[in-house]
Amino acid sequence: MAAVSQPRMEKDDEDSSLLPLVHDIIKCMDKDKDGQEVHQELTKLKTKIQKAREQISNMPGIDSSPQEQQQQLATLREQVHTKNQLLQKYKSLCMFDVPKAS
Questions:
Q1: 3-state secondary structure of 93
Q2: How does it assemble (predicted)?
Q3: Residue 73: how many CB atoms within 10 A of its CB?
Q4: Rounded distance, CA 14 to CA 12, Å?
């Protein structure tokens, strides 16, 4: 099973809300009669939506079905449980005598 890397948090990732852009578009519609500023704001919104689509398509596991993801999660939990059991077993064996410093 391959390790899945965590997505990087970038400055753009923190501001993923579309609401401020929609608000700006509405404000421009009220004051801009020729529509030039509205067009610019719509272009910004379109760009932001496209970036969001790209980020979603690049997310790890997006190509897996929910059932496959649940199966992967169950397998990983089982592996963690087994490794924890082995770790406890090895700790309890005390095979190594560590000399005490005087």
A1: helix
A2: Component of the Mediator complex.
A3: 10
A4: 5
pLDDT band at 3 (very low <50, low <70, confident <90, very high): very low
24 is written with which tokens? Answer: 């700006």
* Main-chain phi, psi angles of 71, to 5 degrees: -65, -45
- Judged against a pLDDT cut of 90, whether residue 83 lies above it is answered with yes
| b/e per residue 24-48 (b: at least 16 CB within 10 A) | bbeebeeeeeeeebbeebbeebeeb
How many Å from the N-terminal Cα to the C-terminal Cα in the chain?
47
